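Long-time lurker, first post. I've been practising inverse folding by hand and with some scripts of my own, and I keep getting stuck on stretches where the structure tokens seem ambiguous. Below is the full token string for one chain I'm working on. Before anyone asks, I'm not after the true native sequence, just a reasonable design that respects the backbone. If someone could post their per-position residues I'd love to compare against what I wrote down in my notebook.
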């Protein structure tokens, strides 16, 4: 789950409306959305979004804004598990975990890579900790949790410049859950989808005068995005096969007639 600011529309309060969505990594389909007037309203919108879909037996991933007691409780009440990034919006939890990790050995750790992609060579290391002795105020957060420390070392292929990044995640899943690191990476698929809406379907360049028009366009474009990912393995026209997905998406986004023709394809 993640929110996206609709920068093509400015409301009467001078802010951009925000649309929070639940996105399925396995199917590339947006399952449900919830509109709010600004970014800070996501905390109230996400519990409503959770109630719209069946998360029983599913894993909900989200960014640090969703690390709220009301959201954690709602996920658990609906029978789901979670993996959420931990940042300074929960300072006592974040810094307490950071301090305690220094004296703890992980339950297990593993490394992926080096992997070449997008002009970068990346090595990712995941360390999995039992949160029993790490997380303070466990009663507030509903019991024991697993802590995942993600560390990335990246080398830019063109210049050789090196960067390092470290992130923390907490999860209701047990420490012996296989490939917890893959869940961290799977969450980035919704951010990639938002990037596609902006850069390939040109969402933020289309000016809209009302929040309702914003919501309608967003819904249509999310449907188009999902259809493209279903259709890309089925396309038959030689002309379509010669073009990349980004080029085809930009072509479709430039006119409503082109969009309808695309949707009519069998």
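-- Answer (accepted) --
I ran through it position by position. Result:
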């Amino acid at each position: 789950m993640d929110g996206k600011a609709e920068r093509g529309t400015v409301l009467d309060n001078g802010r951009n409306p925000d649309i929070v969505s639940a996105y399925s990594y396995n199917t590339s389909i947006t399952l449900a959305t919830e509109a709010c007037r600004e970014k800070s309203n996501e905390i109230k919108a996400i519990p409503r979004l959770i109630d719209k879909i069946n998360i029983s037996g599913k894993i909900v991933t989200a960014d640090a804004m969703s690390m709220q007691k009301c959201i954690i409780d709602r996920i658990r009440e609906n029978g789901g598990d979670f993996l959420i990034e931990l940042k300074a919006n929960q300072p006592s939890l974040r810094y307490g975990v950071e301090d305690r990790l220094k004296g703890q050995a992980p339950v297990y750790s593993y490394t992926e890579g080096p992997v070449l992609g997008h002009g970068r060579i990346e090595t990712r290391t995941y360390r999995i900790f039992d949160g029993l002795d790490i997380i303070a105020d466990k009663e507030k957060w509903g019991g024991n949790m697993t802590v995942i420390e993600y560390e990335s070392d990246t080398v830019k292929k063109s210049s050789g410049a090196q960067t390092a990044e470290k992130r923390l995640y907490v999860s209701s899943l047990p420490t012996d859950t296989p490939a917890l690191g893959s869940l961290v990476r799977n969450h980035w698929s919704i951010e990639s989808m938002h990037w596609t809406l902006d850069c390939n379907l040109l969402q933020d360049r289309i000016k809209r005068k009302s929040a309702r028009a914003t919501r309608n366009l967003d819904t249509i474009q999310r449907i188009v995005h999902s259809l493209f990912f279903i259709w890309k393995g089925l396309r038959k026209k030689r002309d379509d096969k010669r073009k990349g997905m980004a080029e085809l998406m930009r072509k479709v986004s430039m006119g409503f007639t082109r969009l309808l023709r695309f949707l009519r394809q069998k």
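A couple of notes from the structure itself: Residues 67 and 118 are 30 Å apart (CA to CA). The mean pLDDT is 83. Happy to go over any region you disagree with.
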